[in-house]
Structure formats: C-alpha cells, structure tokens
Amino acid sequence: MKQGETGRADRPRLSDRIMLRFSRSRYLDGLWIGTWETEAEPILHRIEEALLLIKRHDRIRYERLLRDLQRVWVLLLPSSIAIFEYGIYTCEIDTRYCLAETTTPELLAAVIVHEATHARLWRRGIHYEEAQRPRIEEICIRREIAFAAKLPNGEAARDKAEQTLALCATGEYWTSAAFRERYIEGGVEVVRYMGAPDWLAQVFRWLMVKRGCIRRGLARLKRAA
C-alpha cells in the first residue's frame, strides 16, 4: 500500500520481520526498544533517556504512547529523521539523527512524541492521504510544541517544531512527488554513509528510479520530518 492510501497492513513485511528478529533490543515499561545497528548500547541508552524524559515531565502523554506504539526502532532511514510505520505500529528513527552530538534527549523525545501522535491518529482511522497531510502534520507538530513547553530545557525542541510548522502553510512539502524526491536523494546519502564510493551511489540512484525501488520504499513512509 502506497503512502496516502487508506487501509491497514495485514501483517508486517517479511523484511521487517527478519530485521526485527535480528535487532538488538530490550524493553522499557513493556515498550520494545531496538536497533539494527551493531553498536547497540549507545543507541538504546539514548532512546531510553528520551522516553524517561517524556515519562518524567508528561506522564499522561507517556501512558498514551505506551498504548499507541509497539516499538521504537533505530535504523537508517533514507528521507526522514523519523517515521511512523503503520504495519508494525513502530516509531522508526534514523540512526544518524539518534547518534548525532547535536541531538539532545529533548529533541529525541519530541520526535517520539510526534510519531506517537501519528500512531494515535492512525488508530482512530485518520490515515495519511495526500490532501490531509498538512493538517495531520500540524496536529503532530503542535503536540511536540506542547510537550516542549513542559521541559526545563525545551527551547530547542520548541524552536525546531515551530520551524517545521511553517511547512504546513502549504501542501507542497507533503506531496507524494516531494516525498519521492527526498527518498531518492536520501537513499543515495544512506549508500554513501555506508561507505560506498560516489559512482556506486549514482548507480544506486539510477536503480531506484528505473527499477521501481522507490515505489516500494515510499510504502514505508508515513511522514517526513
């Protein structure tokens, strides 16, 4: 099912099931936290720190999060710092963003709040159709802002959310065409991040466009950050 279509996934994709099976993980208050990366401990620690920040400063939101999400999973994402993957009710976070020195626990917590809001809306039957995307994103971003206001050091999270909110003024950023372009460029950057030479990254770009890889990849995206 492509992004923007209605309906639900019957079961997780085989690739997701395999990757989840071999991810390194643990649980926090019943919520699965995991990563596909080999060096798991720094990533799991950062996710736990962010979740505990939500628990400490916004307990009601934290309890909702535990009901709306099944997992928080860190892996390389081609076009977003995070997405909500509806097929497995998972907040997926990009490895590079999670590990960046500039990503504070507050920023990471705000991202989880945002994706948990997507999950809550999806559970209520509000799906990510193209015409509704600016409004859906606005709702999720305003939840980020409300959460940031409760944090002792929430200024950076609030400022980042407010900057993203400006993108909701028009629907251009949230169109399928815009997602497609970001997915292509982001996929190339992922290949480079994994150590591939530039010529191979360009071959990968060609394959994404010519062989329909992008259409399969876009099916994973529920929102772009």
Question: Can you describe this structure?
Answer:
With 225 residues, this protein is of the alpha/beta class. The protein has a single domain, classed as Orthogonal Bundle (Neutral Protease, domain 2). The protein is 55% helix and 11% strand. It has helices at residues 14-21, 41-57, 59-68, 95-99, 105-123, 133-148, 155-165, 176-193, 198-210, 213-218, and strands at residues 24-28, 31-35, 71-75, 82-85, 90-94. Strands 1-2-3-5-4 form a 5-stranded mixed sheet. The longest helix is centred in the middle third of the chain and has 19 residues, at 105-123.
Query: What is the CATH C level class, in words?
Result: Mainly Alpha
Described by strand count, sense and barrel closure, the largest sheet is: 5 strands, mixed
Strand content range: 5-15%
Order of strands across the widest beta sheet?
1-2-3-5-4
Secondary-structure-based class equals alpha/beta
Distance N to C terminus: 21 Å
Number of domains: 1
- Approximate shape: globular
Radius of gyration: 17 Å
Helix proportion? 40-55%
